[in-house]
Write a structure and sequence with these properties.
nine-stranded mixed sheet; 15 helices; about 500 residues; alpha/beta; two-stranded parallel ribbon; Rossmann fold; 2 domains
Length: about 500
């Protein structure tokens, strides 16, 4: 049976990779040299003619990979596309800096970086001198403001936009795209259109794009803040808007990548099952932790940790809120382990084979599944400056993940226990944000990462625990993967 599952998983992976790589067919994709060393990629249709430049900027905690659906769509349409990693993000080794709350602080620095990328792309022989800025979320404000600077933009595509710089007249040729399930940003898209015409509705073009006065709001159906980047409506509208601005007629394909990426991730996770079945079989799990002690271990740290850490301010790691996350997870895990140890539930949990099995789990999660994520979803391969961040996060992530695995039986516990344990941890993070919103608001960005981690990696940990009878092996291995995932997600930041 495990060989059948392995072959099916490998087949689905191969099919997904073939489909995703097909979207690159006919394109020349190469590094773009940018002043200051900003990592950037240039997308061109092979054998194409001169065309406007499109500069694509990602949102907070994003990277070039996340914006690739737009890059591929517009390059296939014949545009010269430049996508890059902002300071502190992805492969960019330079941390973000400045005052994040001031327009003349971090915002101005990110605008300057966007301008450097635009100048580098405009110097390419295929560039015709015109430029478009496309940005998502945080970058929507950056590109709106940059379009009013030098080099000025002939059009702007703002995805999931929030910006105080939009007026009825500026920027030129503004297309605002939002997902139906990001209600406040959908309202912002309509507000931008209604600055021009109070009666404007979604999908209505106002003004004349060919004259520089165009404006349009688009609500992509049934998608949220990330799904809007993959929605065919978003991609098609962006391409057609630029065609209207520049009087072009594009015939390139619009890549439908979301479903293939989901299939690839599911197939890669599924491959973990036959690999787990290949591990040495272990003894049946011991007796279940008594309900009272389970609830004490699951709920006590969720209440105590946010309150205990509330007065503390830790600034060690050069990454926004990573210090707090590492400390929160570490204290949380130590309380869990202390309660379990007092009840005698740690005895026999660490035979010698635990360590190599934990290493195999970490290797699969980081190298195999992480490699898929890095290629098709978001940056997962760190530059050297992030290794210290990953190590610091591991000091907290490993105790937490180990305690959580032992508490839930490493895949053998009942579903309600898994939901209570993981839900309590997420609730503790949200409580921490509520206690210090100004200082920890960026934690809200990583909550989806942790939920996705539980769904993908937690499933694999369960397979390992059920096969080996060693919850600690999956817990330690997945703690290392969690530290890695958070370490490459948090933007690096240098105060000042």
């Amino acid at each position: 049976m495990r060989w059948i599952v392995a072959l099916m998983a490998l087949g689905a992976m191969a099919l997904s990779i073939w489909a995703l790589e097909r979207d690159r067919s006919g394109l020349v994709i190469a590094p773009l040299a940018v002043e200051g060393g900003t990592p950037a990629t240039l997308y061109l249709r092979a054998g194409g003619s001169v065309a406007p430049v499109v500069v694509i900027a990602h949102g907070f905690a994003g990277s070039r990979q996340l914006m690739e659906p737009f890059a591929l769509t517009l390059a296939q349409a014949g545009y010269v596309v430049a996508s890059f990693d902002f300071e502190g993000h992805g492969r960019n080794p330079r941390p973000m800096s400045g005052n994040v709350d001031a327009l003349d602080g971090t915002t101005r620095m990110l605008m300057a970086e966007t301008a450097r990328v635009a100048r580098a792309a405009l110097a390419h022989p295929r560039a015709d001198g015109r430029v478009v800025y496309l940005g998502h979320s945080m970058a929507s404000d950056i590109v709106v403001r940059q379009a009013l600077e030098e080099p000025a933009g002939d059009a702007v595509v703002a995805v999931s936009m929030f910006s105080g710089a939009v007026t009825a007249e500026a920027p030129r040729n503004l297309l605002v795209i939002a997902g139906e399930w990001e209600a406040r940003l959908a309202e912002e898209a309509l507000r931008a259109a209604r600055q021009v015409d109070p009666g404007a509705e979604a999908f209505e073009t106002l003004g004349d794009p060919a004259a520089g006065t165009g404006r349009r709001a688009v609500i992509a159906p049934k998608v949220e803040h990330v799904g809007v980047l993959y929605a065919p409506v978003s991609l098609t509208e962006a391409r057609d808007w630029l065609d209207a601005v520049f009087a072009r007629q594009s015939d390139g394909p619009v890549p439908v990548r979301g479903g293939w990426i989901v299939l690839l991730l599911v197939a890669t996770v599924a491959l973990g099952w036959p690999l787990a079945r290949a591990l040495p079989a272990g003894a049946a799990p011991g007796p279940e932790i008594p309900r009272g002690r389970f609830l004490l271990a699951a709920l006590l740290p969720a209440v105590v940790v946010p309150l205990a850490l509330w007065p503390l301010e830790v600034r060690v790691l050069p990454v926004l809120v990573a210090d707090y996350v590492a400390l929160h997870m570490g204290v949380y895990g130590l309380i869990l382990l202390a309660i379990l140890g007092q009840g005698g539930h740690l005895r026999g949990a660490f035979p010698a084979r635990v360590w190599w099995i934990a290493g195999a789990v970490a290797l699969f999660g980081i190298a195999v599944l992480g490699g898929v994520i890095d290629r098709y979803v978001a940056s997962f391969l760190p530059h050297p400056g992030r290794l210290a961040v990953i190590a610091g996060l591991a000091l907290g992530a490993v105790p937490f993940s180990l305690g959580e695995a032992l508490l839930t039986g490493g895949g053998t516990g009942r579903l309600w226990r898994v939901l209570v344990a993981r839900g309590a941890f997420l609730a503790s993070l949200m409580a921490a944000v509520a206690l210090d919103f100004a200082g920890l608001m960026f934690l809200l960005i990583i909550l989806p990462v942790i939920v996705l981690f539980f769904a993908l990696f937690g499933t694999m940990s369960g397979w390992v625990g059920r096969r080996t009878g060693l919850p600690a092996a999956g817990g330690i291995g997945l703690g290392l993967v969690l530290a890695w995932a958070l370490g490459v997600t948090f933007p690096m930041f240098a105060a000042g």
